[in-house]
Amino acid sequence: MRRVGIIGVGEYLPERVLTNAQLEKMVDTSDEWIVSRTGIKERRLASESEATSDLAIKAAREALKSANLAPEDLDLIIVATVTGDMPFPSTASIVQNALAAKKAAAFDISAACAGFIYGLSIANQFISNGAYKNALVIGAEKLSSVTDWKDRNTCVLFGDGAGACVLSEVKSGGIVSIYLGCDGSDLSLLNLPAGGSRKPATRETVDNRMHYIKMQGNELFKIAVKTMTEAAQIALAQAKMTFKDIDLIVPHQANSRIIMAVAKRLGIPEDKIYLNIERYGNMSSASIVTALVEAVKEGRVKKGDTVLLDCFGAGLVWGACIINW
Ligand code: UT7
After folding, report:
1. pLDDT score for 133
2. Is 211 known to be catalytic?
């Protein structure tokens, strides 16, 4: 089996900033509530003319440049998203065409906030078994398109953005372990009820605001803390490592209180945790990858460092991944 590592990173965050102060004018909320309950200060919103693929393409171009590869070097493009441009064809097809990645197979995966780690694991398999040489894994979301701007329980939480990584064979380091999980027994905790084959769009679904994210945050919070703690422990056990071996944890950015509760349970000091939730909110598939990209750009991840990615989301799905940089 070949060793597989991340050889290039990129991101794109839309220019428009929506602050908590602006949200105070839209729903019955306060900056104090949002910051103290979630850690979020502002989030980015794509413009009306920008779709998820537009964000993904910009992140992909930056990742290819940082990997020093041309689009035609790519064998595979995976886009993790729950807000694709349209139900079909895939957003990955749109990205493949825009990049002119003529050799690449391309598809989307839907694993919500765990989408990027699920995508990493698929690309890892294709490269480690020798089927493909270079893969591009993107996490991209325009969650503002499915956010109910009249629901204070959810609209303060989400944002838009994209991050991308190029994976290839590496001589040293690379992905050490990946653990993925799913429990589909309670879909009602976090979902988007209409617009699929179960409830196609009708006047009634629109009138009932069923094309927006529905969430039971409080219940999810408890499961997220437990599940992310266990996922990190399992990925470490698979790698025969302990937390002492980890230089930085890059968790899914749903709520800073969830992240700190996980850190406390695992006995990890706060300075080993990377947070960017205050600037972007929860971007589902795009959260963990943009956090990783920014940690690399800021020098928080250096050559030889060992990084732990840890996530949880709608499905419910979860995953953890250890990478030696
Ligand atoms: O991305 C992966 C999956 N997502 C998650 O894992 C998210 C997990 N959940 C959370 O992050 C938190 O549960 C939330 C941030 C969503 C909510 O925080 P909470 O501390 O669990 O609050 P709560 O839902 O228990 O609500 C507490 C109170 C309620 O008022 P009452 O019933 O106590 O009077 C809510 O109505 O806060 C109220 N509330 C708000 N108040 C001001 C809810 N949203 C807001 C708001 N502004 N935006």
Report:
1. 98
2. no
Residue 282 falls in the annotated catalytic set? yes
The pLDDT > 90 percentage for the chain reads 99
Does the annotation count 113 as an active-site position? Answer: yes
pLDDT for 186 equals 87
54 pLDDT above the threshold of 90 = yes
In tens, the pLDDT along 213-248 reads: 999 999 999 999 999 999 999 999 999 999 999 999
Report the alpha-carbon distance of residue 301 to residue 294 in Å, rounded: 9
Give the distance (Å) from ligand 1 centre to CA of residue 70.
45
With beta carbons less than 8 A apart as the criterion, state whether 113 and 285 touch.
Answer: yes
Which of ligand 1's atoms lies nearest the C-alpha of 255?
A: 11
20 lines ligand 1 (CB under 6 A): no
Tens-digit pLDDT profile for residues 2-22: 999 999 999 999 999 999 999
Could you list the beta-strand ranges (E) of the chain: 4-12, 16-19, 42-45, 76-80, 105-109, 135-142, 160-169, 174-182, 190-191, 214-215, 248-251, 306-313, 317-324
**Catalytic residue of the set 20, 165, 191, 252:** 252
